[in-house]
Sequence to fold (389 residues):
Amino acid sequence: MIRKIFKKRKIKNANFFVEPDEIFLDSKNLENFDRQQFEGRIEKPIPKKTIIFLGIFFLFSAVLFGLRLGYLEINKGEAYLKRSENNTLEKQIIFADRGIIYDRNKVELAWNKKTVDLSSTETKTNFPIRTYLSDGFSHLLGYVSYPNADNKGVYWQTEFIGKDGLEKQYNDKLKGENGLKIIEVDARGEIHSENTVNIPKRGNDLITTVDSRIETQLFSFIKTLSENNLFQGGAGILMDVRNGEVTASTSYPEYNSEILSLGKDSVAINSYLNDKRKVFMDKTISGLYTPGSIVKPFLAIGALAENVIDPYKKILSTGSISIPNPYFPNQKSIFMDWRANGWVDMRQALAVSSDVYFYEIGGGFEGQKGLGIVNIEKYARLFGIGQKS
Fold:
């Protein structure tokens, strides 16, 4: 009994060092263990050679990194400091697409084409280039001025500006709003991150009343007629008299809207400037014509329809016509022509806008029969003249 108590106290109060070989099995598999399951291999000590090799490797790596760090900090420190100062956050414009101009049938007359920024060699930004339908639409559509940057890529003009035609008239509607993004650039000029601050807003589209097919045919007709007869140019407008919608409006000669927008082809632009035919003038709205002349074609049609005059009959215009005054028989009412046009038939009278010719076929004179006030009103109303909206 005393012996058992002594053993328990001995184990309880034991406080002595236990050798590793007393608790770990041999590093080798014993015969009674399953070697395929690695039984009996609890721990195998790392060889001293491995420890020495790792120590040398880490020491060599530390020395190598230390030398490289010293080289960068001491020898190249100032150079990299200057380069690191260029690590900045830059603002970059996201250009908004300009609204598309359509004809009445949703055919595109002016649209956008993605390309590289033409005004900056450093800033590679998608830059929408304006493209136009041709021929016959230049004066109607006009052209634009693109955003411009200096030689450092800083934009001093950040928007498209309409310079003529519909591009100018509806510039505020078409232009949209540019967006903005922030880019992080390192010393090597490499972009590390981009964040869009403002999303660009596309411009509004514009649907016109013009029919592109009729516009093209009208321009082709005027161009051919002008070239074959050595005219300086010509213009034409087709309008729906019921609601005032313009179906076609074209002027010849015309410029190339894309060339003027880009502004790069100095040879072509100088040829426009030196052309005596006044390429930049839209003859449909900028020409100086006698306002009364627009009624002469209607009087001519009426005179032919009512058999008032043979189209080949010639009437003399000496510069004026004198008509007896019914209220003062001794006095005559004199109506002036804009010039003495001589003998003219109907075709020539329309070409030179002879007032005397149409005075005579309108009201009659001497042996020439006239349409009379009733028929003048009739044909004027057929073409919408004098009608109330």
Observations:
- The chain has a mean pLDDT of 83.
- The first helix runs from residue 2 to 12.
- The chain is about 35% helix and 20% strand.
- The two ends are 134 Å apart (CA to CA).
